[in-house]
Specification:
The protein is mostly helical. The protein has one domain. The chain has eight helices and no strands. Helix 4 runs parallel beside helix 6. The longest helix is centred in the C-terminal third of the chain and has 23 residues. About 25% of the residues are buried.
Length: about 160
């Protein structure tokens, strides 16, 4: 039995996982749908909007919405590939194509982290590039929609207040 040789480069520091941001994004989208459908009374919606607006971490939202740097995306994707016991036939080719296809989508940092985590939790075997890209497209949409609504949450509140 051979002993694994540690890499001279060392393990990369793990980039942010954006778990809290994912929960916040889902809450924001649920609130947006409630506002669109006017599922509650305007007073209740205004209360909910005020509560969310008071706890929005604007600096963290800005970081989460920033375009992913190639190096950061490579770390997330590399960890995704490494977490499966059976590797791909040609890891260099697979990795290069995977990072190129991911970066072509110009994803936000949070979208890459969330998509990789979702792939790890969803797939028993190494997902194909198409599966990773499909998951990433969904998380790009989640992040984009949540950030857009976060940016206009006060305007939505004012609109509801004016309509009462």
């Amino acid at each position: 039995m051979t002993t694994p040789v540690p890499s001279r480069r060392g393990d990369p520091a793990p980039p942010p996982e954006y778990r809290d941001f994912e929960v916040l994004a889902q809450d924001l989208l649920a609130l947006r749908v409630s506002c669109l459908n006017q599922a509650s009374s305007p007073e209740k919606l205004i209360e909910r909007l005020d509560a969310v607006a008071a706890r929005l971490p604007m600096a963290e939202l800005e970081i989460a919405g920033a375009r992913a740097e190639r190096a950061e995306a490579m770390i997330h994707l590399g960890l995704l590939v490494k977490c499966y016991p059976v590797g791909v036939q040609d890891a260099k080719v697979f990795g290069r194509l995977l990072i190129d296809d991911v970066m072509a989508l110009e994803p936000q940092s949070a979208a890459v982290a969330i998509a990789c985590r979702r792939c790890r939790l969803k797939h028993n075997f190494m997902p194909s590039i198409a599966e990773v890209v499909t998951e990433l497209r969904g998380t790009i949409s989640l992040v984009t929609s949540a950030l857009e609504f976060a940016g206009r949450i006060r305007a939505e509140r004012d609109r509801l207040a004016a309509d009462r």
